[in-house]
Amino acid sequence: MFRLAIFAGRMRTVVAVTRRGWPLSPSERMAATPCCQSRRHYGSPAAAEPFLSGSSGVYVEEMYNSWLQNPASVHKSWDVFFRNTDQGAPPGAAYQAPPGIRTAVSTVSAPITAAPQFDTENMLSTKVIDDHLAVQAIIRSYQVRGHFKAQLDPLNISRTSILTDHVDALLQTYKYHTIGRYYELEEPDLDRVFQLPPTTYIGGEEKSLTLREIINRLETIYCHHIGVEYMFINNLEQCDWIKKRFETPGVSALTKEEKRRLMTRVLRSTRFEEFLAKKWSSEKRFGLEGCEVLVPAMKTVIDVSSSYGVESIIFGMPHRGRLDVLANVCRKPLEQIFCQFDSKLEAADEGSGDVKYHLGMSHERINRSTNKNIRLAVVANPSHLEAVDPVVQGKTKAEQYYRGDTEGKKVMSMLIHGDAAFSGQGIVYETFHLSDLPAYTTHGTIHIVVNNQIGFTTDPRFSRSSAYCTDVARVVNAPIFHVNADDPEAVMHVCKVAAEWRAEWGKDVVVDLVCYRRNGHNEIDEPMFTQPLMYKKIKQTPNVFKKYSDQLIGEGVITQQEYEEEVAKYDKICEEAYADAKKETAIQNRQWLDSPWTGFFEGLDTMKLLPTGIDEETLKHIGNVFSKEPSEEFTLHGGQKRILKARKEMIDNREADWALGEAFTFGSLLKAGIHVRLSGQDVQRGTFSHRHHVLHDQKRDRETYTPLNHLYPDQAEYVVCNSSLSEYGVLGFEVGYSITNPNALVIWEGQFGDFANTAQCIIDQFISSGQTKWIRQSNLVMLLPHGYEGMGPEHSSARLERYLQMSSDDPDYFPPMDENFEIQQLYDINWFVCNTTTPANFFHVMRRQITLPFRKPLVMMTPKSLLRHPDAKSSFDDMIEGTRFQRIIPDTGTASENPEEVKRILFCSGKIYYDLLKERAKKELDSKIAITRVEQLTPFPFDLILAELQKYPQAQISWVQEEHKNGGSWSYVQPRFNTVIKKQGADRFVKYVGRHASASTATGNKQAHIMEHAQLLKKAVTLK
Question: Which band of pLDDT confidence, cut at 50, 70 and 90, is reported for residue 342?
């Protein structure tokens, strides 16, 4: 009995390891495998009976087959067992124990005085176990590494494999290297039948196959035109899901009708490019030649996604193939595309426009495969590759939010990438890492890489260090499907699986279309300069349409006549559109909007400023809720209790600090049904611990309370979310979020304003110029903490000068002084740049973002020390009805009472005002020096500055700033002051007061900072 128990335990080990799907280590195998005299001798049925099902059944089946050939090849007890079973006895009755075993069973309680003696005839054969484990190892090796051997290159001149020759040889001879030794199968073993493990679906309904057939099927699945990377995913259920969709026999087969439709889609893609090349041979169009299969690939994703209930898809893509996608995926009218090639046509509406392969669009149409409406939007983007990725994600997230699509079942995103950019641009990594964050997830994006196997002129060996350009996707466990782009049916299969994956799991997936670029980087570029061998091969390679149509004609799916009719039919469509395009007299830029705000501008008076003040009762209510502790069960931090108490005292005194002014802004908009979203690093608490919009229970994990979401029962939602440590990706995301709905306030806050330069691409390409290029309005707010506090060069300056430099107002032009002066300026400018000094003014300018009859971005220099400055507070009187945003705040002290006596007027912006105020009082010059704050720098308040200069006709004019001379506002305001002085007709000039020019934004030495600051203050208030 003891011997049987030991054997049974070892049998369990063998079965368990077999089921887990990988080979045993030598030590495991020694522990699991008994010694044996013959490879055909096994233990008794009593020991094996509990394991006759499942993976261990393979051993019993082998023994049974051996018994059929020679009953003497098995132990006598097994001989009896099989004879009884053949005669109909059930397993429990078929077994007859030998007398020795019966005795052992009956005396189980007898003491054991000697070590057990193992009967080698009862032991499993090591060779048999090794053979079966080797087969499992082969199956697994194909699942893990088969993609390295796949025939992915349509040109067949390079291999994507980076395996060494040694490992590559192992795959070809069916050897699998693991844990320091080989499992080998000889040539005669190829025709042996092996039980298939539950870790594969290659058998379909068949439970066993010959090794030759196993390998043939694995080769076809994993090493033909599809390379599947998925075994790195740490979710067994997801891995199993993928296996089933690639390994199940016949799973990728297309019907004749599906093949015909696929050919038609490839035809449209190919002939469209050929038509453009014929009509505009010298124009850049960044055509799709070499990857024409992209169009049917995208349409397959759309068809499958639509069948799963998706109603809207947002695309982001580079310039290559964009016109083809617009024409044949989104079905933008061809004549509108052809118009873009006419250089004589000018825009009929606003904006300077952009090159045709940067433009976006939005269109709703019927999907013919599902007969459902689907909305398709291509987001406009610049040449900065991959910069559009987070913008698309933000737009998708916003659309999901407004539709109440909490699981991403109705709205999804699809991103098209280039291979070199996918691996080379860090924004790709940043975007992937937003994919599962609660406040940023879009519940799965389908990424399609148009893999040219080359950058502009750079070989992949010199452009990336990873095996594949898609390796970055592995960090989020996204499956990666590599596919030969010259096999349209294989492409359709992987795209179908990709769409199903996204629908099933709500996670990202990558389709890598391995293709080539038939022309150079653009149609004018000469690729033979740098890739002569590749392009000699390309010239000899027929396009995919020729290959596939010949294949279908050969298969009898279509006839030669049908083929020619289809070609002629689409060519006629293009010719008719070309004729219609010639009739156009101007380009309609609004036809290229990717985010049309239907109905928003209707009935709005674009020359009317609405009030921004609110009633005092609302202020008090918001303040009381914002300063109230949560329920008694909620354990609040002691420091936060003191903060809430101080807030309540301010409410009772009818005043607000910066945090309360911000809360009044958000709360009043939420009351009006305006959705507010604040995003960025540590925004919930605030980098400077002033905000505390999310309170955390000190005893219960993840128990939080957001006061501003508990103001009114029917209020809009306030979303305040700490972001990943990213500026580029997150700011791009918020841009996309902001362009989706004009009736929302979307805010991104830099942890320090200095850090925004990491996102400069988004600022330059999407925010400052988006409306001019793409008629894309946005009311995105950028909060950039700014101010010199002696904290060093990386924590002082938000680079105010950069935003002012990108402002579009003319420094030499003084606008007409009429009743619409202020709003006309706001309408004409590309964005607003402000540096407010009071909570009330911050309150008004933020609310103005929503009350304006149009939308513009706002760049806000926010304070650091002023967050708690005792003088930086506002009375309720400055926020109630009848009050408004002050573009400048004039001096209201002694100097303003006797302006003729004023010797100097100091203009400034930001926190330097409070330092000047203190220094002036210290020198007792309140009546001699006036201080005026310029709160809105752009558009420049020409009219109000003129009024100030006229008020103080004898005063010297100085611009005071704490930034260096080559930074801050000076270079922006100086020419505009000169324009105002010219308008006044006076003989005056504006003097600079501040730090000297410097390459660094600030000194890193605290004492040097204090000395510099003291000198500029002294200079500002010293009268000569």
Answer: confident
* Same-domain pairing of 381 and 356: yes
Q: DSSP assignment of 29-54, as one string?
A: HHHHS---S-TT----HHHHGGGSSG
Higher model confidence: residue 176 or residue 140? Answer: 140
- The answer to whether the Cα torsion of 395, 399, 404, 406 is positive or negative is negative
> Whole-angstrom Cα distance, residue 784 to residue 803?
11
Query: Does residue 869 lie within any of the structural domains?
Result: yes
Residue 175's pLDDT is 44
Cα–Cα nearest to 342, from 586, 593, 588 = 586
Is residue 316 domain-shared with residue 376, that is, in the same domain? yes
Q: Which domain holds residue 58?
A: 2-124
For residues 191 and 64, membership in a common domain is answered with: no
Q: Are residues 303 and 370 in the same domain?
A: yes
Confidence of residue 394 (pLDDT cuts 50, 70, 90): very high
Confidence of residue 158 (pLDDT cuts 50, 70, 90): low
What is the C-alpha separation between 578 and 333, in angstroms, rounded? 11
**Alpha carbon distance 95, 51 (integer Å):** 14
- The answer on 374 and 442 residing in a single domain is yes
DSSP 714-777: TPPPEEEEEPPS-SHHHHHHHHHHHTT-SSEEEEEE-SSGGGGGGGHHHIIIIISSHHHHH---
Q: Are residues 427 and 309 in the same domain?
A: yes
pLDDT at 127: 74
Residue 412 has pLDDT above 60, yes or no: yes
- Sequence-separated (6 or more) residues with CB below 8 Å from residue 591: 336, 361
| Model pLDDT, residue 505 | 98
| Of residues 330, 317, 314, 502, the one with CA closest to residue 395 | 314
Residue 606 lies in a domain: no
- Where is average pLDDT lowest: 133-142, 403-412, 459-468, 666-675? 459-468
Which two tokens mark 370?
């599902």
Whole-angstrom distance, CA of residue 11 vs CA of residue 123:
10
Cα(969)–Cα(95) distance, integer angstroms: 96
Mean pLDDT of 680-703: 94
Instruction: Please tell me the least confidently modeled range out of 257-271, 447-461, 890-904.
Output: 447-461
Question: pTM, whole model, 2 decimals?
Answer: 0.85
Residue 474 lies in a domain: yes
The dihedral over CA atoms of 134, 139, 143, 145, expressed in degrees to the nearest 10, equals: 50
Report the pLDDT value the prediction gives residue 115, as an integer from 0 to 100: 43
Residue 374's identity, in one-letter code, is: I
- One domain, residues 707 and 804: yes
Residue 525 has pLDDT above 90, yes or no: no
Structure tokens at 79: 């001989």
Share of the chain above pLDDT 90, in %: 68
The CATH number of whichever domain residue 1014 belongs to comes to 3.40.50.11610
Q: What amino acid occupies position 226?
A: I
Number of domains making up the chain: 5
Asked if residue 36 has pLDDT above 90, the reply is no
Buried b or exposed e, range 285-299, using 16+ CB within 10 angstroms: bbbbbbbbbbbbbbb
**What does the alpha-carbon distance between residue 745 and residue 730 come to, in Å, rounded to a whole number?**
16
Residue at which a domain ends, from 247, 280, 297 = 247
The answer to whether residue 927 sits within a structural domain is: yes
- Comparing 558 with 604, the larger pLDDT belongs to 558
Q: How far apart are CA 241 and CA 232, in angstroms?
A: 14
Give the gyration radius of the chain's Cα atoms: 37
**What one-character DSSP code corresponds to residue 473?**
G
CB atoms within 10 A of CB 408: 20
Residues 306 and 229 in one domain: no
| Position with higher pLDDT, 81 vs 54 | 81
- The Cα–Cα gap between 797 and 974 comes to 20
Say what angle helices 1006-1021 and 912-922 make with each other, to 10 degrees.
60
